[in-house]
Automatic annotation (TrEMBL):
<feature type="binding site">
    <location>
        <position position="112"/>
    </location>
    <ligand>
        <name>4-amino-2-methyl-5-(diphosphooxymethyl)pyrimidine</name>
    </ligand>
</feature>
<dbReference type="Pfam" id="PF02581">
    <property type="entry name" value="TMP-TENI"/>
</dbReference>
<comment type="pathway">
    <text>Cofactor biosynthesis; thiamine diphosphate biosynthesis; thiamine phosphate from 4-amino-2-methyl-5-diphosphomethylpyrimidine and 4-methyl-5-(2-phosphoethyl)-thiazole: step 1/1.</text>
</comment>
<comment type="function">
    <text>Condenses 4-methyl-5-(beta-hydroxyethyl)thiazole monophosphate (THZ-P) and 2-methyl-4-amino-5-hydroxymethyl pyrimidine pyrophosphate (HMP-PP) to form thiamine monophosphate (TMP).</text>
</comment>
<dbReference type="InterPro" id="IPR022998">
    <property type="entry name" value="ThiamineP_synth_TenI"/>
</dbReference>
<dbReference type="GO" id="GO:0004789">
    <property type="term" value="F:thiamine-phosphate diphosphorylase activity"/>
</dbReference>
<feature type="binding site">
    <location>
        <position position="93"/>
    </location>
    <ligand>
        <name>Mg(2+)</name>
    </ligand>
</feature>
<feature type="binding site">
    <location>
        <position position="73"/>
    </location>
    <ligand>
        <name>4-amino-2-methyl-5-(diphosphooxymethyl)pyrimidine</name>
    </ligand>
</feature>
<dbReference type="InterPro" id="IPR034291">
    <property type="entry name" value="TMP_synthase"/>
</dbReference>
<feature type="binding site">
    <location>
        <position position="141"/>
    </location>
    <ligand>
        <name>4-amino-2-methyl-5-(diphosphooxymethyl)pyrimidine</name>
    </ligand>
</feature>
<feature type="domain" description="Thiamine phosphate synthase/TenI">
    <location>
        <begin position="9"/>
        <end position="193"/>
    </location>
</feature>
<protein>
    <recommendedName>
        <fullName>Thiamine-phosphate synthase</fullName>
        <ecNumber>2.5.1.3</ecNumber>
    </recommendedName>
</protein>
<keyword id="KW-0479">Metal-binding</keyword>
<comment type="similarity">
    <text>Belongs to the thiamine-phosphate synthase family.</text>
</comment>
<feature type="binding site">
    <location>
        <begin position="38"/>
        <end position="42"/>
    </location>
    <ligand>
        <name>4-amino-2-methyl-5-(diphosphooxymethyl)pyrimidine</name>
    </ligand>
</feature>
<dbReference type="InterPro" id="IPR036206">
    <property type="entry name" value="ThiamineP_synth_sf"/>
</dbReference>
<feature type="binding site">
    <location>
        <begin position="190"/>
        <end position="191"/>
    </location>
    <ligand>
        <name>2-[(2R,5Z)-2-carboxy-4-methylthiazol-5(2H)-ylidene]ethyl phosphate</name>
    </ligand>
</feature>
Length: 212
């Protein structure tokens, strides 16, 4: 599958983003048709490497059962240790050049960009895809920058050519088709799926709105 296709319904979650069992939430989202998953563990588990690794391994297995690639946020060592399918890093994380030296070619490298300059740099550095945002305001990321809106998505798309690009930040199902029309290949969400009464139905709704 092409990376641009993997990005269509990109679900991100850590154990702090759901009240129930994160594995149950993930399986429900997988049943609803998510196309990529990222473990972004910022909760209590983030502090104890053993628990985080256990959760990551279980999530990877679960994703693979549904033939969905598994990405680790921030933690390059963990991604290598558990042979994840990808790693996602932001502007304050490990630089792409260093990641490329350590990681096998098959590993997908995603980089966050909050403006055009960062996006262009990420492409030059060799990112496989970029995550642009926040599109709308969000309470999920405490250090999120000012929202760039749909206009920001269109502007960045014009600057970066055809690199796979996903939009993130405050996105709900109702925004999905506008975000694709603005030039993103897909939408990336935390709350819209992790906090839904039915993550399966929430993922399915986003997928339908994207037209997949
Ligand atoms: C797909 C995607 N896009 C952006 C981010 C944000 O990454 P980062 O800026 O490193 O912030 P944290 O997620 O580490 O708080 C992402 N994780 N995924
Ligand atoms: C993890 C993350 N990164 C962002 C960025 O702008 O780079 S916004 C964000 C939070 C996304 O969560 P929700 O879908 O609940 O708004
Ligand atoms: Mg990060």
């Amino acid at each position: 599958m092409k990376i641009s296709e993997m990005l269509r319904v990109y679900f991100i979650m850590g154990s702090n983003n759901c009240t129930g069992d994160p594995l149950e939430v993930l399986e429900s989202a997988l049943k609803g048709g998510i196309t990529l998953f990222q473990l972004r563990e910022k909760g209590a588990n983030a502090k104890t490497g053993k628990k985080k690794k256990e959760l990551a391994l279980k999530m990877k297995e679960l994703c693979h059962r549904y033939e969905v690639p598994f990405v680790v946020n921030d933690d390059v060592s963990l991604a290598l240790e558990i042979e994840a399918d990808g790693i996602h890093v932001g502007q304050d994380d490990e630089p792409v050049s260093e990641i490329k030296e350590k990681c096998p070619e098959r590993m997908i490298i995603g980089v966050s960009a909050t403006n055009g300059q960062e996006a262009v740099e990420a492409v030059k550095d060799g990112a496989d895809y970029i995550g642009v945002g926040p599109i709308f305001s969000t309470d999920t990321k405490v250090d999120a920058k000012k929202p760039i809106g749909l206009e920001g998505v269109s502007r960045i798309r014009k600057l970066v050519g055809d690199i796979p690009m996903v939009a993130i930040g405050g996105i709900k199902a109702v925004h999905a088709s506008d975000i694709i029309d603005a030039g993103a290949d897909g939408v990336s969400v935390i709350t819209a799926i992790s906090a839904a009464a039915s993550p399966e139905a929430a993922a399915r709704e986003i997928k339908e709105k994207i037209g997949e």
